[in-house]
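tool_call: predict_structure(chain=1)
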Amino acid sequence: MKDEKLIQLYFDRDESAVRETEEKYGKLCRKISYEILKNEEDCKECINSSYLKVWNSIPPTKPESFSAFLVKIVRNTALTLSQKLGKHKTDYIFDELEDVLCGNELEKIVDDRSVSALLNSFLDSQKKRNRDIFVARYYFNMTTKTIAKCFGMEHATVRSQLLRTRTALRKYLKENDIDV
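tool_result:
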């Protein structure tokens, strides 16, 4: 089913919208939530909560990209649930970025719209594979071993690529007058 029809099901308040969402995007949702939560039961709770949030958001929201809209909701729900459960399994990911962005102000800086625009610009300038690896690690919180498996790469190669990308990002931010 095309995303436009899926969105229309939500607008029509047709309960099959959730079933169709699960059929089309369930595997992706499970992958994202599991990478953060590392627990099947928590993952199921996260996905159910996410589908409810989508149901309650559409309408009035009409997302341009349903998949991006859904992924963002699943990711944020998983992160919130992880914090609520006291897991904080994503702290180590911010540790990796401390060398690129000022560590003590990291979360505030990441929320800054201008830095987000620069980050998007930087990622657009990267080769697709490098960008995908970076996003898998720092947006979807995937382990480097999982990324290596998904991309058919050696674990050490993924780690080296992430290091090179972080180094290039640091240089890019400095060139754009962001104090790092």
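agent: Residues 5 and 119 are 32 Å apart (CA to CA). Proceeding to next step.
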